[in-house]
Structure formats: C-alpha cells, structure tokens
Amino acid sequence: MELNQIRYFLNLADTLNFTEAAMRSGVSQPTLTRAIQRLEQELGGTLVYRDGKDSRLTALGRDIRSEFAAIAEGEQRVRALSLNRVRGRRETLTLGVVTTIAPALITGFVTHALRQLPMLELVLEPVTRDEAIERLLSGRIDGCFSSDAMDASAKIATIEMFRERLLLAMAQGHPLASQPMVSLADLSEQPYLDRLHCEFRTRVNDHLRARAIIMIPRLRSEREDLIQQAVAEGAGVCMLPERSAIVAGLTLRPVETLDLSRTIAFQSISGSGTAATLRQLRTLVERYAWS
User: 91: domain range?
Assistant: First the structure.
C-alpha cells in the first residue's frame, strides 16, 4: 500500500467523482482508477460502488476512510516537522474572520489546524462580510471565515462549514425565557438592542414592518460583546445567531414566523497556484467536525 493510493482514495471519498478526484490528485483519471483498483485488491474488498456516473462508498470504504485520513494527516505532520527543522522557517497565513462570528466557533478549528500543521503561523484579522471578497482578491488576506459568503468571483473557492438559525437573545430568568417560542406581540413590547453589524438587520426589520411592528432600539453598537453583555444584564433583547453567544447568562428562543438562518463558510482563492499550506488548511476545513 502506498501513500499515493491513500491520498487518491481520500480525494475520491470527498468528491465521489473519479474525474474530480483525479484533478485534485494531479493525475489522469485512468491512473487514479488503477490505483483504487490495486488498493481494493490489496485490502480484499470493494471500496467504491460504481453505478455509471453515480459512485458511493461501500461499508468497507466508509470504515477505512477515517483511518486513511489519520495516516495522511500524520504524513503531513512529519513533512511539516522535517521542513521546519531543516529550513528553520514557518509558513504564515493571514485569515479574515467576520466580526459577527463567535470566537468559539473558529478557535476550536484554529487549535486543531495548528496541531496538524506544525509549521503554520496564523494571523487573524477582523473583517466585515462586505470587505471579505475585496481583501481576498487584493491579496491582503489568504482566506476568510465568512457569513452568508458572497460568490462575487469565479476565482473564489467556498467551503460551507455549518448553518445557524437567528434567535431572540434575552437574559436568563427573563419572563419570555420560559416560553418555547416568543410571539411577535411579546417581542414588540421588549426594549430592543441593535447589533449594527448583524447581517439579518434589514430582513428582520422588513419582516416585522410587514406585520406592523416597528422596533425602536434603545441601544445600538457595532460591539458584539457590549450588546450581548447588556442583554445578559437585562437591558433588553437582541436578535442573535444561535451559536454566536460570547457572554454568559443568555437564553435564546425562536420567534414565531421569523425563520432565518445563515451559512458560515471558509473562502479563499481557488486554483492549483495557491500555496501548499493554504491547500492543506482548506482540506482541514473540509474534514473538520463543525457540528
């Protein structure tokens, strides 16, 4: 069994498409197909069902996928340690993080990435969603953790990480916290605190206005921590993505008829010309258990 076979299989498991897996692997499709066939012979079982254009992993393929991923990541770490020792240098990537994404959603992955890529050094910069694409295209950042990412260019590769609903945040012990869902009538009576960088602001206001509800904010700020702390201390309520609480003492509840969510994604410049370290980071993003 060769490491190339393992990498080919992992690319095929990710794409379930022989042509795309061959392109990712930098080989021809016949070469990749033969490598997978040799791997199946060595393991004594079929790894991939091939039904015309429809390919899917067999039970054996699913079982060995995580083991092969561990082998591939181990090889990356060995190469990184060797490179770091021999050349005495680190690879630096500058990543943007949209300011409305809670730190805990990103730092767990960052810790994982630094562990998997010992030669990696990361610089994290706060950005707004609207700034992300321009900074990527201009080369000011290498990648970005964005919300409801905009595909403004064919040069941008987007990896969707997870989705989160928009809920109403209130202090623990708030009278509405005992309800499984907040009615629009109850919402309209609450002191409202406005997160100025919230991507949902226009949609929420339009939704409420269409139902003759106008929320007049008692407090406005671009500071996520300030607004959330004020909510936790009982100054009012705010709309907040369900996984984005950064202070203690908050309770989140859905609002009737208000069904909004956002997608958190990683974006970077696509193509084989990107730095090897960035390609490795993208692979880690794809395989990370964001749930």
Answer: 86-162+263-287
